[in-house]
Amino acid sequence: MSREDLDNFRALDDSRKIEFLAHVDEFLELDFATFLAWLACDPEQDDLLRIEAIKVIGLYKGNYDGHLIQQKILSLALEQDEDDEIRVYAFNAVSHLEVSNAEIDASAQTVLSDEYILIKAAAFSLIAQHKHLLVAQAALRAIQGDEEFGKAARRELGTLS
Questions:
Q1: Residue 153 burial by CB count (10 A; 0-12/13-18/19+): exposed, middle or buried?
Q2: I need a labelling partner for 28 at 20 to 30 A (CA). Which of 18, 22, 40, 118 fits?
């Protein structure tokens, strides 16, 4: 997206911005992804607009090193003062990206916390999505004793055999 396109996007009202983002269907360039991360992290923006930005980042990551962008989105997921729906979408977006041990560990801590169940479910989904990683398998083993997610963790581990 060119500088002019970004300026045109900024000039749109929120509903048109949301509509524009809902129709994105191609891999992102770094500049646009960085802009979307800024948009997603700006609490002054409309929550529905922030959610659309998060969804686009998760679904259409381009061919660039998006580690900093991913960290920003993960920070939204982990921010307890953030809107619950934004947190759920942030966990879901990160689950579509390559993750590190830190992201799996943070997700496991969220699952084992006293967070809202939908946030815990999104964090669990991130772990399950990456169950091929040893750190995710360790997280699933740690979750096995959890009252809410233990059975699901055992089921995910059982699919690895």
A1: buried
A2: 118
Whole-angstrom distance, CA of residue 75 vs CA of residue 151: 28
Place of tokens 């960290």: 71
**pLDDT, tens digit, 9 for 90 and up, residues 144-161:** 999 999 999 999 999 997
Structural domain spans, the chain = 1-98, 100-161
pLDDT given for residue 124 in this prediction: 98
Tokens of 79: 């921010």
Instruction: Kindly state the average pLDDT of the residues 49-53.
Output: 97
DSSP states of 29-94: PHHHHHHHHHHHH-TTS-HHHHHHHHHHHHH---SS--HHHHHHHHHHHH-TTS-HHHHHHHHHHH
- pTM to 2 decimals? 0.91
